[in-house]
Amino acid sequence: VDLLLELGYTGVVIFVDRVDEPTVVHGDAEKMKAITWPMFDNKFLKQDRIGVKLLLPLELGYMLKREGPAFFQEARLDKQNLVEKLTWSGATLYDLCTLRLRAVREPGDTAEAADAASEEPFKLTDLFEDDVDPSMLIDALDQMHQPRDAFKFLYAVVQEHCKLVPEDDGRYQIARLTLETVRKQQSQRVQELHRGLGPA
Questions:
Q1: Helices 90-103 and 134-142 meet at what angle, rounded to 10?
Q2: CA 53 to chain centre
Q3: HEC profile for the chain?
C-alpha cells in the first residue's frame, strides 16, 4: 500500500469471488469455509486503505448463521457492510437484458444504426407478441432477482417457444402463455435455490 501511495493510488480493493470453482474445492462447502473463514476477522477487514469484498455462495450464508458467539465476537460482522443476498429489481434486469440483446446484434444492425434510420432501438418486448407489455416482463424478471437467473429465464422462454412452434410456422414472436408457463417454473426454481432446496 505504501508503494501504491507513491504511485498516486490511495488504496486497494480486494475482490474474493468464485471460491466454489477451483478443482480442489469443487463446490464443497467445508472447503469454501476453510478458505474464507480466516478472512472474517475484524482486524483483517479494518486495515487502513485496504477494502475487502467477499462475494460468497449461498451455502456459506447458511453456515454463517449457524456459527457461535465466539465467531461473531471475533468477526464483528455488525461493523461490516454484510449483504445477505444480492438482488436486482425487475426494471434493472429488464434494462440489462435489453442491452445484452442489443450488444449481440449483427454489425450494422445496432441501436445507433436504428436511430440513424429514425427507427426505435431494439427492445426486449420485440421478442414477444403484442399482448406482452414491458410491465409483464419486468414483473417476471423481478422474480428472478439476479442477472444469472434472468438470463436463464429468458433462455428457457426461447427454448420453450422453439419446442412449441415448428420452424416453417413463421411465428417468431413468443406467446404470452409461453412466458407465463416458464415464469412459474423458473420462479419456483429460484425460490428453492434461496431456501437451499435446489441446486444453483
A1: 110
A2: 16
A3: CHHHHHCCCCCEEEEECCCCCCCCCCCCHHHHHHHHHHHCCHHHHCCCCEEEEECCCHHHHHHHHCCCHHHHHHHCHHHCCCCCCCCCCHHHHHHHHHHHHHHCCCCCCCHHHHHHCCCCCCCHHHHECCCCCHHHHHHHHHCCCCHHHHHHHHHHHHHHHHHHCCHHHCCCCECHHHHHHHHHHHHHHHHHHHCCCCCC
Contact present, 175 and 129 (Cβ < 8 Å): yes
pLDDT level of residue 182 (50, 70, 90 thresholds): very high
CA distance linking residue 166 with residue 120, whole number of Å = 29
Asked whether the beta carbons of 77 and 117 are under 8 A apart, the reply is no
Which of 116, 115, 86, 199 is CA-nearest to residue 152? Answer: 199
pLDDT tens digits along 19-52: 999 999 998 999 999 999 999 888 888 888 999 9
How many other CB atoms are found less than 10 A from the CB of residue 136? 16
In angstroms, the CA 107 to CA 101 distance is 13
